[in-house]
Amino acid sequence: MTSEFSALLKRLRREANLTQEALAERAGVGVRTIRGLETGERADPRVTTVRLLADALGLRPEERERLLSTAVLRTPGGEVPDAESPAEPPVPPAAASAPEPTASGPTASGPTRSPLHEVLADVADQVAQTVAARWRREEEQRQVHDPYPLPVRWRPVAEELTDHWANIRRLPPGSAPAPLELGGQLDAIVNVYRRIPSGRLVVLGRSGSGKTILAVRFALDHLKARGHADAVPVIFSIGSWDPTAITLRDWLAAQLRRDHPGLAAPGPGGTNLAEGLVETGRILPVLDGFDEIADGLRRPALEALNATTLPLLLTSRPAEYAAAVAETDVLTSAAAVELTDLTLDDLAAYLPRTTRKARGRSATGWEPVLHALRERPRSQAGANLAAVLTTPLMVTLARAVHSDAPDGDPAALLDTRHFGTPEELEDHLLDNFVTTAYRPRPRPGSGPLRAWDPERARHWLGYLAQHLNRLDTPDLEWWRLGYGMRRTTRTLVTALVIGLTIALVDGVVGTLFDSVAYQLLDGLVAGLLTGLLFGIAYWFMVAAKDAAVEPSVVRMRIRGGERRTGRNPLRRLMIGALCGLVFGVGYGFVRGVLNGAIAHAPLPFVLAGSIGDGVLYGLMFALAAGPALGLLTLFETPLDIRSALNPISLLRTNGRTVATQLLVWSPVFGVLVGFGSLAVVYPAAAVLGPVAWNLTAALKLGLISGLGGALGYAFSLTSWGQWTVFSRIWLPLTGRLPWSVVAFLEDAYRRGVLRQAGAVYQFRHARLQHHLARGPRAPLRTSDPDGSPRGGPLK
Questions:
Q1: What percent of the chain has pLDDT over 70?
Q2: Inter-CA distances, 90 with 38, 279, 321, Å
Q3: Are 125 and 213 in contact (CB under 8 A)?
């Protein structure tokens, strides 16, 4: 029976002028697979296969969605409906307010909507609501509208940085189109974007020129006018993308799952919701910070972007983008604009409105600065200010330091004794921004902000900035705060914390069964061995791969009929049994060696006993760990799509998940170890001879194993546990972070030093991050106690 998918695939292959063999070679699948799909013999194609075929055919977003939709289209009885005739072509997007068609997002294709289309349309609506709320809150936090947004304007860039206008306007061969009019300002960015038929725009601007503010405004304005079938603009900090390790679409899906953990839930067609949104064109990527990609990766990144036809908006500094273009090519089918500098009129209109008027007169403290810029532009002070106060970043820093601070006299900016160059003036603003941000001040509606010593705060922020520089990413992820250290250091710290924890558990619980003296020794041995074994496991499973333990995308549901994650309990059971076997054999063998050494037994007797103990403990822990881990799978359910709106909520969600896992896993594992030991030891005694084991010993082993095993697993193999080991214990202990890390990060966000980008923090600007990473500098005071301007160091 020929399906709609089969007919559509055959038609698309023929339109691409490809044979079955050629398509199979391009897609990397077998020719028999292609034949089976086109004849209907293979009635249930995998989504990954459909993705490969769509890429090989070079499909447009609407064609890709149509192909994916028909791949999962089924009747209630599970049969694939007949479709002898080729599928109808998709309806092109509406033209919004421009005369030419746009590429702002997919629309309904055909008269009927497939299950995939319906599910993903609803999911996209929920993501749109979350994204809009997130960036509205971020604009408020950064005082973008106080008193009004700084002007952000742009102009077309040089022709060598844009593609041919025929490609941008999607015109047939032989056309000679005129360039599009792309000039504009912040509130018109969506209209400008909609004039571009290809839906691909590059926004260039130097550091601090307002690229991120423009990206946020684009997302919010686009969401305001978004229809149910339109794509959702989502801002991605592209600086963390490694195009040599992961494809663009897979990276976008991974970022969506990070910021919206509920999108990891299974969706129609055997894929997760995040992948479904990306594959069907329901996400409009706003890729912020192309210049933040590592130097050697910008060329492959641009080549990877050119390998897709995704509509997108890309921001970058001009020099980095131009260098990547020189090495390969422009962004295919993309128009480009460049942000312009602020003017003196912009400063004169904005800065006086950011500070209070002096008593008895209408002038403000900014008048001397504006006068110098207007009347003495060639003086050293005027030239320095003219070079610095041309970007929104520097203007907002100047406002924070000299308008918002009670003693921040703007006239201090004219002091050429301390600010002889524009660079020194910029350093002054960056240095004093942190000091100003941490001055005592009230927080509206919530009392005063927490008091932090500015120098200590600067030290901790400097460590965070250096940490991000070492990882070469702008994203401050709480689950990777310890990953700036060497892998060996992380492994040793993890093993040390687990060893001390289990030694404490063993020592305290064991006193219920044995003497304190014996249990102290037993606790030290158990802690040493368990720390060693968990350290080895951590090295091979995490550190050696130089990977992070990612936050969990599930929660635990003991009761209720909610949908499950689709994970296979049998697979988890086998993994758990294997890990338990390895751990038990190692633990039993080492314990046998130590017991033999303490008893001064002959070496052959020690080896025989150690091997026997290794076998027994291996069986005990394998029979316990496998079922316990498999049981956890039955209680896992996907997170809600609106979950984890910010880093702290994601941390708390993972903390609750780990706590519930421990409450389930610890007693189950302990009971299985305890009773499993009896089930293993007594039959083994018939083979090995008398074994010193009884119910009390089984109960003791079960209690200690249940508590110790659960804590060891949590600290080494969960993101919340790694956060606890490094951010709550090791880094504060070594002075690199405060003890109350969560409070510090949240406070830095409220003070405007950090910003939130989904589930991660970022520094307010990359320039501030790199400046803080350079180490402490002496901040400058802006006035003497009597109020006279001064540029001397703060006391």
A1: 84
A2: 20, 16, 35
A3: no
